[in-house]
Write a structure and sequence with these properties.
single chain; six-stranded mixed sheet
């Protein structure tokens, strides 16, 4: 039988070895990939973007839309949200393993920029469900995705926005993004215009 102090010394040595020896992260269940950070500057919010629910929802879609090669409006986008905003993206891959991934604004911007790259992408609201109580509003938007302004739809998303009125302006406090229609699962009537 080990004396108690020797057992503690061995346990401490093993713990130190585990913490100090580099771990192989390449086999992690969620390997990290390096993404370039997009610089986001702090600018004042446009009054037309934040003075009404219509304005903030319109701006939410305007900032990410644009032709190939045109930088997205990430500085303007940043003005729409509370400082600690979280974006939760839901995915429904073909393997049936649905996931929800939470991101900061910076992480969302970096991912969106990497995915959109130099592609033309336009997103605009086509339908809205809204519930409001006092200074809070929950807005469910159906968005249409196109490759050209006014072009044929290449997809839809359902965006759930939580909004807060601080007495002077609206803020988006959280964003949930669901994939919209897909083969075998059309949008349901409550999400259609």
């Amino acid at each position: 039988m080990l004396r108690p102090s020797l057992a503690l010394e061995i346990a401490a040595a093993l713990l130190a070895a585990f913490l100090l020896i580099p771990q192989n992260t390449a086999t992690s269940a969620h390997p990290q990939t390096k993404t370039d950070h997009i610089k986001i500057s702090t600018i004042p919010a446009r009054p037309e973007d934040v003075s009404t629910i219509d304005g903030i929802v319109k701006a939410y879609y305007d900032v990410i839309s644009g032709p190939a090669g045109q930088p997205r409006q990430w500085d303007r986008d940043h003005t729409l949200y509370i400082p600690e905003i979280r974006f939760v993206e839901f995915s429904e891959p073909k393997d049936g393993k649905n996931t929800a991934r939470s991101r900061t604004h910076q992480q969302f911007v970096d991912k969106a920029e990497a995915e959109l790259g130099n592609s033309a992408f336009y997103e605009h609201e086509i339908h809205r469900l809204i519930h409001r109580f006092g200074n809070a509003a929950h807005v469910f938007c159906t968005a249409e995705l196109t490759a050209t302004p006014g072009g044929p739809a290449i997809g839809h998303s359902i965006d759930s926005l939580e909004l807060f009125w601080d007495g002077q302006r609206w803020w988006i406090t959280s964003v949930n993004i669901w994939p919209g229609d897909r083969p075998g699962r059309p949008l349901t009537p409550e999400f259609l215009p």
